[in-house]
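We modelled the chain as a single entity of 365 amino acids. Its sequence is:
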Amino acid sequence: MSRSQTIILVSLVASILSSAFAVLASANQFSAIAQDNNSNSEKKLVGGHAMGYSAYETSGDVLDPVNNDGKMGKDAVMNPEKYLRSFNYGRISTSPNGTTVREFTLVADDRQTMEISPGVSYNVWTFNGTVPGPTLRATEGDIIRIKFINNGTMPHTIHTHGIHKAEMDGVFEIINPGGQYIYEFRAEQFGVYPYHCHVQPLEQHISHGLYGAYIVDPKTPRPPADEMVMIMNGFDTDFDTENNFYGVNTIPYYYMHHPIEIEKDRLVRVYLVNMLEFDQINNLHLHGNLYDLYRSGTSLEPDELTDMVTMSQGERGILEFNYRYPGQYMFHAHKTEFAEKGWTGLFMVKDSSETQQIASSGGGR
């Protein structure tokens, strides 16, 4: 055997041995992980779509896949638990002809750096200090009057989807820093609408957070329900026009840490709006159930019974459902990347007797 052949043979043997040791080490590491998981066998695994993305049920919150405690700092851009069921009905008065007038104030600001995920700060552009902005709510036929104040460093507007005069559209009437404008129009068609800044470059103003939801109720109210707002959004924190975080109501994984408590058999009504920038679509899949979908919320008859809806930016709808069985149920984007970067949450379905017992004892959050 020549010297060169010997060198090749020795190199080949060394490579095989190195690979064998690597496989053995990997197996030992996997065994250690399995043993660690077995040590937690008394805990119940919930959720999960891929290795490393499961979560353990705990006495209070749910540990999330990114291995942090889910606690937001005092400079958090919003409180998703509070925002979920918060509706701004405005300051109410009556016009001389008996029409209800609802007056709102929205203040735009682009100077704030706030926490959008535990330990992650970002220059958010806000309406009234949060992303999304407040959920405005009225009844069909009401007069809407929005006092807009621009406290930012650049021009901003408010464009509200729906029916109104041209000068109320928030496109050509650009409000410069320090300026104010009064938007006034009648709520002509019930439904769910987004509002957002409409200044160029539009993707910059939306991706930083200048948007919110506007709900117009029909004159004959919908049936009573546990109502909540979910705005699908995300953030591009490295400015490459690809989002780094996804979620509903801004904070990634928040509703995994803090499952949304609902009562078994009680009607739930979700006002869903997609305001995600940079990605062409977004969606919501509900586990263990189906929902009546009212696209745009402009009809009192559902469009379909489904567990999955896909929306492009600006699309919205109403989801109505109730759970027959108690327990934890996941809801999330059925785009896996979005789900595994934060757009995942849980409903905690409880018997009404259990909920009442917790309330009477002063428990709960």
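As a brief sanity check on the tokenised model: The chain is about 20% helix and 35% strand. Confidence is low (pLDDT under 50) at residues 6-10, 16-43, 46-53, 55-64.
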